[in-house]
Amino acid sequence: MDSVLVKKLQNTNRDIAKKVESIDLQMDSLDLKVPDGFEEFNEMIGLPVHPGTGELTPIFDYQDEYFKAWQKHHKLILNKSRKIGATETALRIIAYNCLNGNYSGHRVMIVAGNKQEVANRFIQRFKSLFTKGFIDLNGKEVAYEDIITKEDSKSCLVNNAFVQAYPANESVRGEENVKCVFMSECAFINLIDDTKVYNALHPNVANISDADFVMESTPNGKRGFFWTNYDASSEYHKLDQPYTVSLGKLLDEEFITREKQNPKIDFEQEYCGKFTTSLSSAFKEDEIVFEEKDINHYDDLD
Q: Which of 57, 97, 151, 284 is the most buried (most CB within 10 A)?
């Protein structure tokens, strides 16, 4: 009986939250003039910081390519190398679409990790983009509290767009008015069958024809919905960004040489975008050989 009451209470709280959010999304959007170009937009809000040196970095050509593919195709798979700043770029693309009004009046879903506390880190990173505020193209000075008008540990309201972080499980099912779904490292969802997460998420964008559904990951073997959609002739535009796109930018030759020499790293998969083997596999694909032979005796069969 207690479990039934708890479930009813959870459903009631969820309904109340949705009503509050629907009221929030009727607020007026900010009257901002932001640049059309991704590089200029990031110069306005503040350029990324290099994780190693702490120095500001420009928007590189491959990051602008990611932005343009997102804006043009809406349904996108990024098959990427590690350590090229892809997630940072994705959060900045979401910020661009929030501030220029593309996502205003809608919900944005950021799906990352298997636990809420992991997903929440993405919201913190997203909000940190606006810490210093900025001055728009009309000379209007905008502070953090003008941009982030409501927030908690897992969500925020940005220019009348409700941005929320979710763990990769079936709790993502049934959200309404979704203009963007972004899935980070979605080849590494810790489930034997991860298609239930994709199947729960995908219908959320069914009612908005130009809604963005973006899957971003380093490969993890020929398994799961990331591989299936990448390998198939699906609705998704495929963008490949191996380590070479960032060599001499965020990655240097010395680091890459060390990674190539590390026997514990599947370099082809981690940095070259090759679908080799799952980290949970007992054997690599090229170690398994199938030979078809006719059975001509049954002495050992019961």
A: 97
Name the nearest CA neighbour of 14 among 157, 174, 153.
174
The beta-carbon contacts of 34-40 under 8 Å, at least 24 apart in sequence, are 34/96, 34/99, 34/100, 34/136, 34/137, 35/137, 38/63, 38/64, 38/67, 38/68, 38/92, 38/93, 38/96, 39/64
pLDDT tens, 20-67?
444 456 567 889 999 999 999 999 999 999 988 999 999 999 999 999
3-class DSSP state for residue 52? coil
Number of C-alpha atoms within 13 angstroms, CB side, residue 176?
Answer: 8
Task: Identify the CA nearest to 84 among candidates 54, 118, 60.
Answer: 60
Tell me: the pLDDT tens digits for 202-233?
A: 999 999 999 999 999 999 999 999 999 999 99
Cα 246 to Cα 89: distance, rounded to the nearest angstrom: 13
Q: List, in order, residues 6 or more apart from 46 with CB less than 8 Å away.
A: 129, 132, 134
Nearest to 188 by CA among 214, 213, 216: 216
**SS3 (DSSP) at 184:** strand
Give all domains of the chain, ordered by start, each with its CATH number: 20-287 (3.40.50.300)
How many Cβ atoms sit within 10 Å of the Cβ of residue 130?
22
Residue for token pair 């009986």: 1
Q: Determine contact, residues 60/246, Cβ cutoff 8 Å.
A: yes
- For residues 101 and 29, the answer to whether their CB atoms sit within 8 Å is yes
Length of the chain: 302
Distance of alpha carbon 211 from alpha carbon 90, whole angstroms: 15
